[in-house]
Amino acid sequence: MMTGDQYVESIRKMKMDIYMFGEKVSGAADNPILRPSLNSVKATYDLAHMPEYEDLMTVTSHLSGKKINRFCHIHQSAEDLIKKVKMQRLLGQKTASCYQRCVGMDAMNSLYSTTFECDAKHGTAYHKNFLNFLKQAQENDWTVDGAMTDTKGDRGQGPSGQSDPDLYLHVVERRPDGIVVRGAKAHQTGITNSHQVLVMPTVAMKPGEEDYAVSFSLPVDTKGIFMIIGRQSCDTRKLENTAIDVGNSEFGGVEALVIFDNVFVPNENIFLNGEVDFSGMLVERFAGYHRQSYGGCKVGVGDVLIGAAALVADYNGAHKASHVKDKLIEMTHLNETLYSCGIACSSEGYATSSGGYIIDLLLANVCKQNVTRFPYEITRLAEDIAGGLMVTAPSEKDLRHEKLGPYIEKYLKGVDGVATEDRLKLLRLIENLTLGTAAVGYRTESMHGAGSPQAQRIMIARQGNIDHKKELAKAIAGIGRCCSDCKK
Ligand code: SF4
Ligand code: FE
């Protein structure tokens, strides 16, 4: 297992093609806007070396028998699935951001079982290719970016109905030694901090859409792959050397639009290539695993936000007000409900034919559906408790100013015994989580990450087994029985 520092060096050595504000940038390790995002992934390495977190962060590989980071593991039991969620809550608490490495973990677990089942039906050799990749990922302790979301163009059309075929990533050439692909993947959190990009189709494909049913892995610095960094609210505060104004200056998450401009993929890196009947399985399983993930990571970030709201109530002298206490109870109730869903879908996990464990898909989708709502309410309550100063406070430069500083100290003070500076730090953290850079990871990602709400509702409809429930109702109501004594 790499240490955090070794991980940072490994990313620094890569020759990624990254653009931001219209300019090429050297990489995440040395860029003030990208570095906090790298630090969040670094935490997944650092914590794995801390004895107190060993049980959650590390596990024995079923392939090599060696101790590996859990982010590279294929779940071997329901207990593994539960520990995954607990690990994610822990990392959310430690970073208060998206630490990005779960997408690759979820992609690897989906591909493990899907390639196995595809080979069994079609006689393909994708599972062997995938095992090879997995062994390297475990051996090298890779961070893998799972790339699913295509840009999708006209949402009323599928991949084959687009006027521009590149709006879904697809194969443009088949060669004896591999394929050439073109397209783009959107919203790629953590791609600048990843060793590999693991591409999957974005929807279930149908016959005629074989070129779009493609999955493969490549190093992120492969020729033809380049990234355009997405803007975040308040992102350039990270350039101002004012840690207080950033709110969470150490950690973050950054997204990119990733372009695949005629990229060659060798045969041994391909995990699906034209088998449209398995694209839906891959999408469904990946979505299920990532919807489970949100019952861990968002809960951990929620813990930080609830703590910040309670602390700011103390600093404001409002902690004894009954409505404040009740709001903190409500926030805790909502947050723990999300966690309950994450644990429940894991506890109900079962083995696939490959041996890898998968979550209960219905409960995982219920988990994520709740995540599309509850963090918004938690955020609303945090803003309520914090008060308006979280969006009107002066800058750190004003606080440090010779003339202005003493006035800010005097007039923006809360209760005795708490430094004005600490109160401002806390308000900026709440601003960061609810409106700033971390709001991408805590708010909007709660809505759209791992699929927008309607995607879960489709799965809930499919998995809810309404017919069985109708039979239950009929049996109790006696519908279909000839008389009350007849049990037939
Ligand atoms: Fe992990 Fe959560 Fe970020 Fe997904 S959103 S990568 S589960 S921290
Ligand atoms: Fe996500």
Summarize this structure briefly.
By secondary structure, this protein is of the alpha+beta class. The chain is 49% helix and 13% strand.
Bound molecules: iron/sulfur cluster, fe (iii) ion
Strand order of the largest sheet: 2-1-10-11-7-6
| Count of individual beta strands | 14
**Helix-and-strand structural type:** alpha+beta
Q: Give the fraction of residues assigned to helices.
A: 40-55%
CA-based gyration radius: 24 Å
* Intertermini distance: 62 Å
The residue-averaged pLDDT reads: 97
Oligomeric form of this entry? single chain
Global morphology: globular
Percent strand: 5-15%
The unreliable regions are none
Mind describing the biggest β-sheet? 6 strands, mixed
Count of helical regions:
18
